[in-house]
Amino acid sequence: MGLSDRKKDHVRLTIDDRSAYSYDAGFSAYRFRHNALPELDIDEIDTTATLLNRAFSFPLFISSMTGGYSGAARVNEIIARVCEQENIPFGVGSQRAILDDSSAATTFSIARKTAPGAFIAGNIGGAQLIGGLSHEKLSLLIDSISANAIIVHLNPLQELMQPEGDRNFRGIFDGIAKLVEDSPVPVLVKETGAGINAEVAQKLLSVGVQVIDIAGAGGTSWARVENLRSDDSRKYAAFDNWGLPTVDCLVELHALGIAKNKIIASGGIRSPLDVVKALCLGAGFAAIAQPVIQTVIKDGEQGLVELVRTWKNSIRYAMLLLGAARLDSLSAGHLVKLYP
Ligand SMILES: Cc1cc2nc3c(=O)[nH]c(=O)nc-3n(C[C@H](O)[C@H](O)[C@H](O)COP(=O)(O)O)c2cc1C
Questions:
Q1: How far apart are the C-alpha atoms of 119 and 183, rounded to whole Å?
Q2: Is there a contact between 90 and 148 (Cβ–Cβ < 8 Å)?
Q3: Averaged over 248-272, what is the pLDDT?
Q4: Domain total for the chain?
Q5: Among 43, 81, 174, 198, which has the highest number of CB atoms less than 10 A from its own CB?
Q6: Which of 220, 228, 274 is the best mutation target for the ligand 1 pocket, counting ligand atoms within 8 Å of the beta carbon and taking the most?
């Protein structure tokens, strides 16, 4: 199966509830410490969030998803327009297709054409960096969308589950270190739903990666997605729930002292209150994929505008109910852990 058919299949399967982990990302283990006397006016609540020195209207990143086949252009166009209008950042899906065939670039470049002022991140797999990415290839990725940043995705679980996936993961770290040296824009690293533990995060930050997007377990299970695509979906079903839940990753990274502005929490963020809990637990930003693609496919652009506005407002309401006028005052003290 070709790369573009695979990307099309991914959209079809990730909007199917069967592609979710059978446990949540860990947010249900926490309740908020409601403040009945907040002494705040809702108009004072400031949801402004900073990522890579740029201010956004609230801390929600639309995760890397698609590109490389004709239907993807429409999805990227919708996401781009909404993100520019609502002033939130987003990433396009893996741009690997451009490296093989430069005509695939239009399904990504539509994002920049639609949203000239938006923050748009490019995306490439760690495996594509083994041995180093040439300057020419790096320019293709960045120039196709005038990228503000480049995201490297790590996905060994997903690759192993794909019959046609990569099997060699040696050399990815050196490839990332070289990319950091060569790239004119900041480099971020994300998983795709199995999580980034504290040691891996620290190693990546030590070579100049600027932000880690946890992309932990509890949301979209890429083992399940790939198993659903396979002829024998039960063969590697033992891995369907493999991964470190998002909250476990967050707690590990926070305990190691990794600063909030270096952490994006994602993987199984399914409500604006999950965003607030993630910020209390040490993230500076949160990101979502599945809720966005599901909304775009079902309810189109207007549906996505509504989702984004409702999440922003809900975060404001939650901040008021916690007595927090600014995001940087959110802390673990605003939560109660239900069980150890
Ligand atoms: C349809 C779809 C396509 C995706 N494609 C990519 C991709 O090309 N590159 C990438 O880094 N992550 C990709 N992801 C993973 C997401 O960016 C995200 O890390 C993961 O789905 C976990 O977030 P969620 O639980 O909110 O879905 C994709 C996710 C979805 C739903």
A1: 17
A2: no
A3: 98
A4: 1
A5: 198
A6: 220
